[in-house]
Design brief:
With about 270 residues, the protein is of the alpha/beta class. The chain contains seven helices and 13 strands.
């Protein structure tokens, strides 16, 4: 399957709850197995949408702690295989050596962000602690949500994928990525930002998915000061956001939102 095939037509029938109607075509999001391989050694199989895979390789490697900066990756080569796609990732020798020492393997599903963790001590935890204050205007949040609706091409076709986006303080969209997996979408976004040399302080992250603690962790690993979600966070997500001094806004709509952490960061 070529990496740029992100949606595919499938037959569907209109159901009016009284009878089966005429057949109507419906575009479905493509979901495929993506094997992340470091130095010829398989590390993870994630179910993902097969686009922006270079960004995915960088973002996943960064949020998993395999790399500490974009320069740690020497090359990424996507390769089509019978059962999915293979991402051959070449690391700097020092990073490859450190990676091998970790001896961690993942087997991922679309909605899974904790695959391969054997005990509670293995839960991801960012080493970063944001310093100082951060200002985020409610008007900017509203503008960002409206703007993001115009930059979800795959979801507009399929209504089946998540988005993660990075906005400047004046609601300018700096990057957006989509995927069937919410973690994958965020990893793709972070990878794109790393490759572009964007600093976390340049803006804030918006996600269209559920805000569980690992989404906060990934944002914190990148160094984000604020995370906005269209859904509500979990209790652990709020606890982690507090620990990282990160603003966490949930149930975000065009006309309202709930501030779960970082009330002092929100201003007119």
């Amino acid at each position: 399957m070529p990496p740029n095939d992100t949606h595919s037509p499938a037959p569907a029938w209109v159901l009016d709850y009284n009878r089966l109607g005429a057949q109507s075509p419906r575009e479905l999001a493509v979901e495929t197995a993506v094997n992340l391989v470091y130095g010829s050694i398989p590390f993870a199989v994630m179910m993902a949408t097969p686009d922006d895979l270079i960004d995915f390789a960088y973002g996943f490697s960064f949020t998993e702690g395999i790399i500490t900066e974009a320069a740690d990756i020497l090359a990424v080569e996507p390769q089509a295989e019978e059962l999915g796609l293979r991402l051959n990732i070449a690391l700097k020798p020092s990073r490859m050596q450190a990676h091998l020492a970790r001896k961690r393997a993942l087997s991922g599903r679309t909605g899974c962000g904790l695959c391969g963790i054997e005990d509670l001590n293995g839960l991801p935890h960012s080493a970063r602690m944001a310093q100082g204050s951060y200002h985020l205007s409610p008007a900017v949040i509203a503008e960002a949500l409206v703007e993001l609706e115009q930059h979800q091409p795959l979801n507009n076709i399929t209504r089946a994928v998540h988005a993660a986006a990075f906005f400047s303080a004046d609601a300018t969209l700096l990057a957006a990525r989509e995927d069937v997996g919410r973690h994958n979408a965020l990893d793709k976004l972070i990878g794109a930002l790393l490759r572009a040399g964007r600093a976390a302080g340049d803006g804030f992250i918006v996600i269209t998915s559920r805000c569980s603690f690992e989404m906060v962790e990934k944002a914190a690993i990148f160094g984000a000061r604020a995370l906005v979600s269209v859904s509500a966070p979990t209790t652990l997500a709020v606890e982690r956001a507090k620990a990282y001094n990160m603003a966490l806004i949930g149930v975000a709509r065009r006309d309202s939102a709930l501030v779960f952490q970082g009330q002092n960061f929100i201003g007119s």
